[in-house]
Structures are given as structure tokens and as C-alpha cells.
Amino acid sequence: MDEILTGKTKSCSKEGVYVSIGIFDDILIPADAMQHPSRFDDKEQLWAWEYETDDGKHDLFMDIGEEIRFRVVDEIFVDTTPSGPDGTANQPSEISDTESKKTPYTIVGSISEPGLGLLSWWNS
After folding, report:
1. What is the pTM (predicted TM-score) of this model?
2. How far apart, in whole angstroms, are the C-alpha atoms of residue 14 and residue 33?
């Protein structure tokens, strides 16, 4: 935890930004862990940091495939071990889509500090 990692943005949703570090893809930077103020652009389907300058606000979009630096703030482990037989073999399975697609391990990141976020924000 608290380690700074660099990855690439994989996708965006209202939930947050999904990041890949090549060998691991289950990294989420949730909406409340973005630079402030940030907003989700429904039209572009991207997150944007509303960066304030003397000239006014500028939207710095988090384009897919861009390099991003983030801090690891949490790890989520979910037990995905099959539950096994419980005497209800004759009844149809009632496993929902969300139960069958649980991710066993997720890293939660944050970019709410100076120097974190897209590398292109800090190189200019």
C-alpha cells in the first residue's frame, strides 16, 4: 500500500478509471479519488480534470491508452471459492451475473495528489 505505480488507462465509466499495468488489469481509480475538481463526460465517456489557470478552466481529459501515475490506497480480496454441494442439486442454480463475475483481487488507486494522474499533465 502507498506504493506509486505507473500504468495505462484501460477504460472509463462513471464509477472511475480502470488501469492496466500490463501483467494486471484489475485496478480501479474511483471517482472520489481523482484530482479535484473532476467530472465524467458522458459524450466522450472519459474523465476530465477541470484544471484552473489564470485563463480559466481547462478540461484535461484522461484518454484511453495514456500513461498514468497513481498511488495504491487499498486492496480488495474476494473469496471466489466454489461453495460446493449443499443438498440442493435438484434445484436450478440461481447465481446472478454479478456473483459469477466477481474479481478475486482488485487494486484501488488514487490520483488526488500533485504529480499523480496522466504523465502528460506533468510533462508540459
Report:
1. 0.82
2. 13
